[in-house]
Amino acid sequence: MGEILVQMGRNSQILIIDDNPDVIKMAYEILISEGYQFVSGLSDLSDVIGWIKKNNPELILIDVDMPQVNGLSLLKDIVRAYPGLEKPVLMMVDQKDDESKRLAFKYGAYDFVSKPFNYYEMHARVRNVLSLKERWVKSLQDNSMLEKLLHQQYQQIHNNDLEMLQRLGRAGQLKDNDTGQHVERVSLYSALIAGSIGLPSSQVELIRQTSPMHDIGKIGIPDEILLKPGKLTPEEMEIMKRHCVIGAEIFLSFDSNYEDEKPRNRKVTLKQIYAHESEILRTASLIAYTHHEKWDGSGYPGNLKGSNIPIEGRIVAVADVFDALTTDRPYKSAFSLEKTVELMQSLRGSHFDPEILDEFFNFTDLLEEIQTLHPKNDTKDVHALDAVDKAAQNG
Ligand SMILES: [Fe+2]
User: Fold this and answer.
1) Phi, psi of 211 (to 5 degrees)
2) Checking CA distances to 81, which of 23, 187, 270, 373 falls within 20 to 30 Å?
């Protein structure tokens, strides 16, 4: 419904519809004598809705009993075109015609005026409907202002959360000695997948904004493990795996409802993450927590399986491993696109969600373009590849 501009009280535009000009004249004289200044009559019933659209009356009176057109049908047409109280209709009904009065209310008339007309009755009923409409319009305007205010407040909170998220991301890059190109590529790959599998655009944008922070938990990993140039020992790998929970907790800690009792030993749950009051921090926490889960349930930290892994985590898992494979590592050169596709396809349905992987590799041209826009650099993202190393060796 567009903005409704109305003149209320005696300045209201009132339309009387009847194919009998004498009836129009009688109703007109009563309304004019009561002080209404803008009263129109319409006896040509060939295009009533067109006339209403053009002249925009605030209240419409229709005679039920018209030889040319059924007044009740006209009432239905108007109510369909103008729901609510935008164009309230008063039906002009014979005093004793109870059936027409019943149908008039059933089809959406707000009241009726008895014929023959009674001056006081017509005045009272017209005044009551206009007063009702005035309150209706005011409540719409109040709601609209409230919605605007709420939207502005939501946007402000969202922007604050986003800025905080980006600062955290930069801090994480400093610790990890990363230039930022890796997370930029993961962000673009993730958004590409999210869009191509048909997620709503708002969710695609949230994933694009938050996926760069998937490894933020690495700021809680000791340097000797995080920056170790070679492969990690099994014990070191267990410590490295904690980055998922640490990352999820970082974002959870910004939720005023989150109780951080034993930060070092605490187990994060999806239920806690889903309860996060901030949409953007909830998504960031979800991705940090689940981006190392695997489709067959053998991932970490929650051993989640199949569609129990949030879609955000399944998407970033594909994007993160793809980027790690196609990037040089201290002890291994980057794989070619063909080799990477072959290797990841061998993990279709075990490590990766099959549908997401298939969708991702529909866009190999775009993937190469993203790599060109964000040139590769050495990455120390050893843990991202641990899961696919065995397959790489076999391949
Ligand atoms: Fe990670």
Assistant:
1) -60, -30
2) 23
- Cα(18) to ligand 1 centroid in Å equals 75
Separation of CA 81 and ligand 1 centre (Å): 56
Residue 168 CA to ligand 1 centre (angstroms):
16
Residue 9: predicted pLDDT: 58
Distance 382 CA to ligand 1 centre (A): 9
Identify the weakest region by mean pLDDT among 13-22, 173-182, 240-249, 379-388.
Answer: 379-388
Q: pLDDT tens, 304-341?
A: 999 999 999 999 999 999 988 888 766 667 888 889 99
| CB 206, CB 280: distance < 8 Å | yes
Q: Is the pLDDT of residue 6 over 50?
A: no
Separation of CA 384 and ligand 1 centre (Å): 6
Predicted pLDDT at 327: 82
Q: What residues contact 81, with CB distance under 8 A and at least 6 apart?
A: 49, 52, 87
What's the gap in Å between 7 CA and the centre of ligand 1? 62
**Cα 243 to ligand 1 centre (Å):** 7
User: pLDDT at position 256, please?
Assistant: 64
CA 375 / ligand 1 centre spacing (Å) = 20
Q: How far is the CA of 317 from the centre of ligand 1 (A)?
A: 9
For the stretch 9-13, contacts whose Cβ atoms lie closer than 8 Å and that sit 24 or more positions apart, written own/partner, are 9/130, 10/35, 10/36, 10/37, 11/37, 11/38, 12/36, 12/38, 12/58, 12/59, 12/130, 13/38, 13/40, 13/55, 13/56, 13/57, 13/58, 13/59
Domains and their CATH numbers in the chain: 9-145 (3.40.50.2300), 177-394 (1.10.3210.10)
| Per-residue confidence (pLDDT) for residue 169, from 0 to 100 | 77
Q: Compute, in angstroms, the gap from residue 277 CA to the centroid of ligand 1.
A: 24
